[in-house]
TrEMBL record:
Superkingdom of origin: Bacteria
Cited InterPro entries: P-loop_NTPase
SUPFAM superfamilies: P-loop containing nucleoside triphosphate hydrolases
A Pfam family matched in the record: AAA_33
Source taxonomy: Bacteria, Bacillati, Bacillota, Clostridia, Eubacteriales
Protein name: ATP-binding protein
Length: 187
């Protein structure tokens, strides 16, 4: 039986996962399901800042995200799912998808300082980011405080895993990843 495949793109905030996943989606002709974009659509519906929504908003959005991914996989659609998957929080949800798809983990990596700088810059450059996501580190920086680099527990699943350095370009490149992924798919 042929299973769809799921490319899980993740990394700490500021690691370049959103930019990378959009380019990957375009080059591999796969739909991209982004947790942040689902959250933005959800917040838009209520026309209130993230901070004004109920405390369970992130859980609701995560449930919608995984229901969407599951529905596509159940319909035999291969896809890319992008989010800051933390091992402790997301392991059971990702593990449950292993019976539905051949999963590949693509973890975007940069030095902590680079990730922090990117995270703060995108928030300061785009005030709507805080409206939709409530990025507290950006708010602290705006008020003159130093934002802390939060720990990130990258996913550890028994699936093919690739680490992508996004410091300047992508290493390995998307072409190199494509060859590695499709080699495993065809085994």
């Amino acid at each position: 039986m042929i299973k769809p495949y799921l490319l899980v793109v993740t990394g700490r905030p500021g690691s370049g996962k959103t930019t990378f996943s959009k380019k990957l989606s375009s080059e591999l002709y796969l739909p991209l399901i982004s947790r942040d974009e689902i959250k933005e659509g959800y917040v838009n519906t209520f026309q209130k800042r993230h901070s004004e929504l109920p405390d369970d908003t992130n859980k609701v959005v995560t449930d919608i995200f995984f229901a969407t991914v599951k529905n596509l996989l159940d319909s035999n659609v291969s896809l890319i799912a992008e989010a800051a998957f933390q091992h402790k929080v997301w392991e059971s949800k990702l593990e449950a998808l292993k019976s539905k798809a051949k999963i590949f983990m693509l973890i975007c990596k940069v030095e902590d300082e680079i990730a922090q700088k990117r995270y703060i810059s995108r928030g300061l450059d785009n005030p709507m980011r805080e409206y939709f996501h409530g990025d507290e580190g950006v708010d602290l920086t705006r008020k003159g405080y130093k934002a802390e680099v939060k720990p990130y527990g990258e996913p550890r699943l028994d699936v093919p895993t690739f680490f992508i350095d996004t410091t300047n370009d992508y290493s390995p490149s998307i072409d190199e990843l494509r060859l590695k992924i499709f080699k495993v798919i065809q085994e």
